[in-house]
Structure formats: structure tokens, C-alpha cells
Amino acid sequence: MAQRNHKGIVVVVNKWDLIEKGTNTHKLFEQQIYENIAPFTDIPIIFTSVITKQRVIKALEMAHRVYENRVRRISTSKLNDVLLPIIQDNPPPANKGKYIKIKYITQLPLAYPAFVFFCNLPQYIKEPYQRFIENKLRENFDFSGVPMEIFFRQK
Length: 155
Fold this sequence. Notes:
Blueprint: E1 11-13, H1 25-36, E2 45-47, H2 56-71, H3 76-89, E3 102-107, E4 114-119, H4 127-140, E5 149-154
Parallel strand pairs: 1-2, 4-5
Antiparallel strand pairs: 3-4
Helix pairs in contact: 3-4
């Protein structure tokens, strides 16, 4: 629902002081949460305790950071400088002997991150390559906790 409405997400786990902790308790809980919210892997998780005031401020700071990620604008030149070499190294797979050439990338002027990739044959780009592009966008520009949309259009 958050992705459909283009909202940022921060998972805050409260009552952390009541959990009996071992060496990797934090990692185990995190892993369990990521398994439950799959395929989302870049959502920040904060473990808090309001009674002991543990990480309460950090949760608010993280929510603000996710908001900043949501409204971030990246110039077309910076997008092209960073992503076009990556796309040249890992081009979309050819389909029926036709090679897909991505010409340039731009960000749409929306309230959430949305990007348009202009190419010659957008109908042949499949979902795995879209996920690859999304992962590269998240890797090079911090969009943690924010859903994004990627469109492929004819140039």
C-alpha cells in the first residue's frame, strides 16, 4: 500500500528493552523483518525503547532522512553521467535479435522519485532488467526507504 501511494517507509520496532538479547539478536530480528516485507530490502529498521529513551531521536532523524530521499531531485546530466556507463557495461538483453539502446535518462517532476529511460525498443525491456536499473539507482543515489517508479519510453 505504501508503494502504491508512493510513501516513504521506516520500520520502528518498539519495546526493545523487553527483549532478551544475545549476540546476534538484532541481526536475527532484522532478517526476519526483511523476510516478511520482501521484496523490499532497502527499508531502514530502527529498534527503540521509549521507556529507556533508546534510539527515539534516531527514529525521527531516519524518518526525516527518508523524506529527504523522497523529495530528492537529480539532474539529467548527473543521471546520464552515472548510469549510462553502467548500462553500456550491462546492456538489456537482446530480444528476437533486436538490441535495445538506452539513449538518455531523466527524472520526472513528481512528488516521488520517478525516472524515464528513453530507448529504441521499450517494449522488449523485461522486469529483471528494471529491477537491475532500480538497484543501480539506489546504489548510486541514496533512495533508502522510498519506492520509485521506472518507465521506459520510445525515443
